[in-house]
Design a protein that fits this description.
- By secondary structure, the protein is of the alpha+beta class.
- It folds into 4 domains: about 90 residues, Rossmann fold (3-Layer(aba) Sandwich); about 60 residues, ATP-grasp fold, A domain (Dna Ligase, domain 1); about 130 residues, D-amino Acid Aminotransferase, Chain A, domain 1; about 80 residues, Aldehyde Oxidoreductase, domain 3 (Alpha-Beta Complex).
- Helix content is about 30%, strand content about 25%.
- Strands 13-12-9-10-11-14-18-16 form an 8-stranded antiparallel sheet. Strands 3-2-1-4 form a 4-stranded parallel sheet, with helices on both faces.
- Helix 1 links the parallel strand 1 and strand 2.
- It is globular.
């Protein structure tokens, strides 16, 4: 039985761990959090900081793993690539992973090769760096940590003062202490997941998105089909971006904005499977392609199968972004699933504290619906989310 090391063992990674076991691999998971949910599904686990590349490599060598992967988080990308390179395992090139992990370097390459329509971008590592560029900036702009994940510390700035505050927050949230400033694009956001295998770029899915209102810009859910008129053009732009960035292997998740004038702007690239049920549920259900299984198999050097099996017409999800408070009671999830014709995935427990929703880390789970009708799927997940929110008994609001 081949051993696969899964970098990260949170709620979303637990789906990967379970899938890897289901298809016959010995699963080893690592995470900094000793209480990570995924640990209970793994054959073996270790408490290791997933951004500490040397510690992750030491652990991988000790376990003599046959493959390594991460999913649904950017924080494990560099350690995954480092282990793959050092142990001669399948994986994205380490130098390429370093580029993709840095949002400024990605923006620079996409701009230089004229892949999309962003015109201004700057990288700063200290608030004093603004003095040399602040008079040249055209507002509004978006500010984000250069190596961030899950929409954390992503802010729009409309003025010099707002820019300074946003940059301070982004730098503080960045592991490498750098922030990216770029155009604010007024458009509709879409998610795109691709899989690179044997030199071929397979664009597996384009998803419509629900997003939070300003000042936060966080995902609230997805739907497929996207109903985007220019989806075929968007797929070609994504393929070109993958090639320009030199991504040679594995899953790639992109966030893309499309304006009313059909300008296309790539706003984020992750060298891993999409989170928020994208890779584990949405794409496999809608397309009939075993996306997650293919990533796992490719990571240990086994043959993959991208054939289509039992695709569904429409799928929609909603993040359980709930009102804050300490949980004193939970709703009847089975009754809600039956009434709304949905599936609920959650990690709510009595005694937990629900945080106000500002980014993906504040979510409490997901609702998923499959339907012949796209609108009906969307209505079902929204109703289920509301019933869950109303059904949670809270001690107090925060």
């Amino acid at each position: 039985m081949k051993k696969i090391l899964i970098i990260g063992a949170g709620f979303l990674q637990s789906f990967v761990i379970k899938k890897a076991k289901e298809i016959g691999y010995y699963t080893i998971a690592i995470d900094k959090n000793p209480n990570s949910l995924g640990f209970k599904y793994a054959d073996e686990y270790g408490v290791v900081d997933i951004v500490d590349q040397q510690a992750c490599l030491k652990f991988a060598k000790e376990k003599k793993v046959d493959g390594v992967m991460t999913a649904a988080t950017d924080y494990g990308v560099l350690s995954t690539a480092f282990i793959a390179q050092q142990m001669n395992l399948p994986g994205i090139k380490y130098d390429t992973a370093k580029v993709v992990k840095n949002k400024y370097l990605v923006r620079h390459l996409l701009y230089e090769k004229k892949i999309d329509d962003i015109s201004q971008y700057y990288e700063i590592s200290d608030i004093e760096d603004l003095s040399g560029i602040i008079e040249n900036i055209h507002y509004p702009v978006m500010v984000k940590p250069c190596d961030g994940s899950g929409s954390k510390a992503v802010k729009r700035a409309n003025s010099k003062n707002e820019l300074k505050d946003a940059c301070t927050e982004a730098i503080n949230a960045s592991l490498i202490k750098k922030a990216l400033i770029e155009d604010f694009i007024d458009g509709k956001e879409y998610g795109v997941d691709s899989f690179i295998y044997n030199g071929e770029v397979y664009v597996l899915g384009v998803m419509g998105k629900y997003m939070t209102s300003p000042p936060d810009y966080a995902e609230l859910g997805h739907m497929m089909p996207s109903n985007l008129d220019i989806e075929s053009r968007l797929r070609e732009i994504v393929k070109n971006a993958v090639q320009v960035l030199g991504i040679n292997f594995g899953a790639v998740n992109m966030d893309v904005l499309v304006t009313k004038e059909n300008r296309v702007c790539i706003v984020d690239v992750g060298a891993r499977m999409g989170g928020n049920l994208i890779g584990s549920h949405i794409i496999p259900i809608k397309t009939g392609i075993d996306y997650m299984g293919s990533i796992i198999k490719a990571s240990v050097g086994d043959e993959i199968d991208l054939s289509v099996k039992n695709p569904q017409p429409c799928v929609a999800t909603k993040v359980l972004a709930l009102k804050p408070g300490k949980i004193a009671g939970l709703p009847d999830f089975n009754a809600i699933q039956e009434e709304c014709k949905v599936v609920v995935y959650h990690h709510l427990e009595i005694g937990d504290t629900i945080r106000a929703y500002h980014n993906n880390l504040d979510g409490c789970g997901y609702v998923l619906a499959i339907s012949e009708d796209r609108r009906k799927a969307i209505e079902n997940v929204e109703l289920a989310r509301k019933l869950i929110d109303d059904g949670v008994v809270r001690v107090s609001y925060l």
